[in-house]
Design goal:
The complex is a heterodimer of chains A (about 350) and B (about 110).
Chain A lengths: L3 E5 L3 H12 L3 E5 L14 E2 L4 E2 H11 L4 E3 L4 E6 L4 E5 L4 E4 L1 E4 L3 E3 L16 E3 H10 L10 E8 L15 H15 L4 E6 L9 H10 L4 E4 L2 E6 L5 E7 L4 E7 L1 E6 L1 E3 L1 H10 L26 E3 L9 H22 L6 H8 L1
Parallel strand pairs in A: 1-2, 1-9, 2-5, 9-20, 11-18, 12-13, 12-18, 13-14
Antiparallel strand pairs in A: 3-4, 6-7, 7-8, 10-19, 15-16, 16-17
Chain B lengths: L13 E2 L5 H10 L11 H5 L10 H9 L3 H8 L7 H5 L6 H13 L2
The chains are: A alpha/beta (about 350), B mainly alpha (about 110).
């Protein structure tokens, strides 16, 4: 008998792990709560740092996972541990006997409405990074009509203890720089301002796009967090911050303000964590067993983790994490079920 | 109106709506690298004039972006164009040429 593996979450981590585990000869069942595979990637237009179309990346992930049993619109109803395996009841009525469970539940974008001082959902001209990506994807948004001055507010729902989000979301700095460039490409005459505390451009090519934003596109980077936003009579926005380099309070009138909403632990992931009684750290993300050494194993035997379920990650990091998780699952199953007829075992017998 | 001898203190607030885009574009055409300063402060740290008189290219750049160009000129008034700042700039800006360009563009009233 082949081993069954249940993967929860059909985003990049879930898709990549399914592809890898299927190739290793396991029987993979992938469930996704929404009607469509791809997670946040399916809603994004282009990806930093090289502005690769998100559809291309998603397309190759989906092709890799061809042949995997996928259930969309499906969540976990109940789960209980047997001797070595898990008996998982799904919301579509199917019950899966799974020898390993990989939780790839990803993240939710921070709900920008919670930062009331920025006026998302109150003032018309305030939008989020996700709204801007949707605009790039569809080409229409009533808020965007030849904006002359556009601001990006970094760290919305990141590094903000009062909003319950202490951690850095890691990807928003590079996303803001990317979107600032794209906005300048769409509206070359516009003035673009980025309000940041630190620019955390840690990855390969990230510093290059920062330099490009300054040099080729004239994006102005202002060190200082946006403190408050108000609406003028004509619908434009009055934004206040401190320029902490100059050490002076600053104001500017903008036609559009984009809030860089950060990553939060996913709510549906938390529900699954509750069913499994999985340990969650103070930041809301799942705890891993070995810290640095075994970042894809949960403290519970047979339960594995991949992607943003264990904290904010860039897409390449998520994919690498998913591949690592697949290796960890393989190692675990080989130890626990030495007689299972998986690909490796069949190859051994044939020779 | 009777002059009581009181004057208003000019606002210390930065108002980006006052930013003069035309003059800035003139500066960019003379010295395009004005855009790539990342406000690290190396130029100010090594400034020979700065040891004696308040002099800071970093502050001058900030003041230009913040529509306080008179302050910018004041921050560069004591510069002797020795060029030491150009040697330390991590982004390789020709700071000496930049200072001359700033003075040329913003001294015109």
């Amino acid at each position: 008998m082949k081993n069954n593996i249940l993967i929860i979450g059909g985003g990049p981590a879930g898709l990549e792990a399914s592809a890898q585990l299927q190739r290793m000869g396991y029987n993979v069942i992938l469930i996704e709560k929404s009607p469509k595979l791809g997670g946040h990637l399916a809603k994004w237009d282009r990806l930093f740092p090289d502005s690769v179309p998100a559809d291309e990346v998603l397309g190759s992930l989906l092709r890799g996972a061809e042949g995997v049993k996928c259930f969309t619109d499906t969540d976990v109803r109940a789960i209980n541990r047997l001797d070595k395996s898990y008996n998982v009841r799904l919301t579509n009525g199917i019950t899966v006997l799974s020898d390993a469970v990989l939780v790839a539940s990803g993240f939710d974008l921070f709900d920008a409405v919670k930062k009331e001082e920025y006026g998302y959902g109150i003032y018309d001209q305030v939008m989020t990074n996700a709204d801007l990506e949707a605009y790039f994807k569809t080409g229409s948004d009533p808020r965007i009509e030849h904006p002359g001055r556009i601001g990006f507010a970094h760290c919305v729902g990141s590094r903000d203890e009062k909003a319950g989000c202490r951690s850095c979301s890691k990807v928003c700095c590079a996303t803001a720089v990317k979107q600032a460039i794209e906005v300048k490409q769409a509206f070359p005459k516009a003035e673009v301002y980025c309000f940041y505390m630190d620019l955390r451009l840690f990855g390969r090519h990230y510093e290059d796009i920062y330099l490009k934003a300054q040099k080729e596109y004239g994006v102005r980077f202002i060190r200082g967090r946006v403190a408050e936003v108000s609406e003028n009579y004509d619908g434009t926005l009055l934004v206040k911050a401190e320029d902490t380099v100059a050490g002076k309070p600053l104001k500017v009138t903008l036609d559009l303000l984009v809030l860089m909403a950060g990553m939060r632990p996913s709510a549906s992931g938390k529900a699954i964590g509750d069913l499994l009684e999985m340990q969650v750290e103070e930041d809301g993300y799942f705890a891993v067993r070995g810290g640095i050494a075994a970042g894809q194993r949960s403290p519970i035997p047979g339960i594995f983790l991949a992607g943003a379920a264990t904290g904010p990650k860039t897409l390449p990091e998520t994919l690498a994490d998913a591949r690592a998780a697949a290796m960890e699952v393989d190692r675990y199953l080989t130890e626990i079920f030495p007689d299972a007829k998986n690909y490796k075992q069949l190859v051994k017998e044939r020779w | 109106m009777v002059d009581f001898g009181f004057t208003l203190v000019p606002s210390s607030r930065i108002n980006l709506d006052l930013f003069d885009k035309e003059k800035y574009e003139e500066l960019v055409s003379m010295e395009p690298d004005v855009r790539i300063c990342m406000a690290c402060g190396s130029c100010t740290a090594v400034c020979t004039a700065g040891k004696f008189v308040h002099t800071s290219l970093r502050e001058a750049m900030e003041d230009i972006f913040n529509a306080k160009t008179d302050n910018a000129l004041e921050s560069l008034r004591a510069c002797q164009l020795c060029g030491k700042c150009a040697m330390v700039c991590p982004r390789g800006i020709n700071t000496r040429h930049l200072i001359m360009s700033i003075t040329k563009v913003y001294s015109k009233k």
